[in-house]
Amino acid sequence: MEVQYNNFKREFTIISDHINEYKSFIQTLNKIRTYGFSVDQLVNQVNPYIEVNKNLQNQLKQNIQSYENDLREFTICILVDNKKRIYLSRRNNPTKDFYDKYQVSGGGKKNNESYDQCAKRETKEETDVEIHELDLVTIHQGFRVEASNNDEWFSVELRDLGKYDLTDSLKEFKSIIVEKINNQVYESDNPSIVPSKDEIEILNRPSEEEILDNISKLVD
Q: Which of 14, 73, 100, 195 could pair with 199 in a Cys bridge, judged by C-beta atoms 3.0 to 4.6 Å apart?
């Protein structure tokens, strides 16, 4: 879906460039005409190309619009414990996008929601973990089908994240995610690190045992 959309956008840009070039030809020919040269034959040859490309441009515009009309806003929320472990689950519905890839919690944003509210709601619905504070990692434009059935959640060491076949958003921004976690999450059993007030709030987030216990209750 995303590949075809991007192809339409690229073709639209190419066609638009062609139209602009043909129009510049016409302007040049009209300027030549002011010097008494006969250019009518050339003008008549160029004008049909402009019309053909305008028709192609309109068709591509409709194709692009049909995709953009179906675009939905969504959030994903990366759960990290105080050991820098990320919680993943495998998408197990073969009829949905990203089948067999590993995802974090998330889903579509409702019209009356903020992105923060969406992330908190979706995380609660999918993992039964309540999120009180969020930290933005990045903004991504792409295509994603609504969350589907998935396997049980499990924790992954941050250094092992690249070993899993992640969904596209996670894969594309993996280095940013890892850097963000390394910069903001300190392991609570390291006595040589004195966390700041913001870092203390991160350390007070649910432990792995609490998260897994909440998830198991939801599954039951």
A: 195
Answer yes or no: is 210 within a domain: no
Identify the CA nearest to 30 among candidates 40, 21, 45.
Answer: 40
Q: Are residues 106 and 60 in the same domain?
A: no
Note the pTM of the prediction, 2 decimals. 0.53
Distance CA 120, CA 77 (A): 8
Q: End of a domain among 70, 96, 112?
A: 70
pLDDT means per 10 residues, the chain with 220 residues, are 79 93 92 87 90 93 81 83 88 84 87 88 88 79 57 88 89 88 68 40 51 56
Q: Which domain covers residue 160, as residue numbers?
A: 74-185
